Amino acid sequence: MRYLLIFWALPLGLFWGWYGLSYHDINFGLSFFSREMNDLLFRIYGNILGIDPTIIPGMVARACLLDSVILLAIIAFRRRRALWAWFKEKRSAYRSGEAAPEVRNLSSAP
Questions:
Q1: Which terminus of the chain faces fewer neighbouring Cβ atoms within 10 Å, N or C?
Q2: Between 95 and 51, whose confidence is greater?
């Protein structure tokens, strides 16, 4: 799980953090976080790819979402026995009526 956070969540968090700050021009005095840098970077990417720069963030978002779904599916497949056991336990607890925690009346507490 540690490697998952390092190699998947950290780069996504850094990219979307930069994108959000630069898109809204919250730059803290750094030109890297300015809206001009955001526009310049996506204009460069758009010229390299030969597409309109305004559609690149949406394409990146869809790619991140697809990658996340694939990664979570792989993790679920690798841990399917534990997930299935957890599901069976919760289902049996629900059917037996033990799923809801017992509500105690604290007004009669000493």
A1: C
A2: 51
Torsion of CA 61, 66, 67, 71, to 10 degrees: 140
Contact 1, 79 (CB under 8 A): no
Q: Which pLDDT score, from 0 to 100, does residue 93 have?
A: 84
Taking the C-alpha atoms of residue 27 and residue 33, their distance in angstroms, rounded to an integer, is 4
pTM reported for the whole predicted model:
0.71
List the alpha helices (DSSP H) in the chain.
2-4, 10-23, 35-49, 56-78, 80-96
Sign of the CA dihedral running 90, 95, 96, 99: positive
Two structure tokens written together for 76: 């679920």
Q: Provide the pLDDT for residue 96.
A: 82
